[in-house]
Request: fold
Amino acid sequence: MLLFTPFLMFSSVGRYIRFEQIIPEFNRESVTTVSSILQDREGFMWFGTGKGIAKYDGYNFTLFSPPQPDQKTSLSLVSVFPMLEDKAGDIWFGTSGNGLFRFVKEKEEFVQFKHDPENAESLSGNIVLSIQEDKKGNLWIGTRFNGLCCYNRQDNTFTEISLGQDVDTIWDLLIDSKDNIWIGTQDKGLFKFEANTQKPQNYKHNPDDPTSIGGNSVWAILEDKQGTIWVGTKNGGLNQYDEESGEFTTYYGNEPEKNDQGNSNITAIWEDNTEKLWIGTSGDGLRIFDKKTGKYVAYKHNPFDQDSLSDNNITSLYQDSSDIMWIATLRGGINKALNNQIKFKHFKHNLHNPRSIQDNDVHSICLGSSGFLWIGTSKG
Reply:
């Protein structure tokens, strides 16, 4: 069922979220491109950057990047895309042109996997966009131009998985709680591998069917705490999948921006501990979506507000074990949001939320007999 925009209004919650910007520095050089985030089992934060993987202890960053074959000590600045901590505690990461790496944390050593045109059991492509680990410990890898492949840990071999003709770009992967594999592609829609049959089912946008998926380029997939699958698309809104009917509900936007999400490329989705969805976009900032009310609030970069998002191009979202939200961006480094941890709730004007306080210059406050607070500002 397609939900039209009157159902979706900006949240009446006027609280302002403060974003703290963190820019990793290595050799006195700032690194503003951050593509992925994870927290390891020891509690350290890891960030995939344009120069390698960076470990953060809450105070300092340590950069790890694999050396060139002919250089045993100096770093070759590898641009990292996805990251994954496997069951053994090692970190796997995909790169832009250098294939797939396994970083053995205990030894601080790298193991590289690259495509070999003379070896049919090698990695299918050297630009890796997505990684997932199944219950058997095998890795599923999505590439930019060479489709999907599966790495068998026991045999140390890669097997290409065919999804049909010209399905060559895999943006995102998800292995859900039922062991189904969800695959987001470029222009070819969403695929689902049933755990039992291992046969791919393809969901594509049909302009004549409002229950079809909103767009054929799928950039982000999430399973929430209730087991519901959410899908972020390019120019096709946020999509909720109904397992029983096989239909999608598409959320496009809020009043007064009726096609707000329909015009956005959704790059990341995360469910926080209050069961709200954080939705990152390419060039259009952040949305926080309340599934219970169907309302969301937009947060974007404001050059006149140092507490706003540092960049509207969001690449990854992550909530750590202490409930801090981390936002990775394309050009603004890392943003950190304490969310519900702050002692004092902050109400501040948000250009993108008409239900926020009207102005930041507050002159008077009065408690009415009905229990409402009346706030007098420079703008009424």
Observations:
- The chain has a mean pLDDT of 88.
- The domain at 5-377 is CATH 2.130.10.10 (Methylamine Dehydrogenase; Chain H).
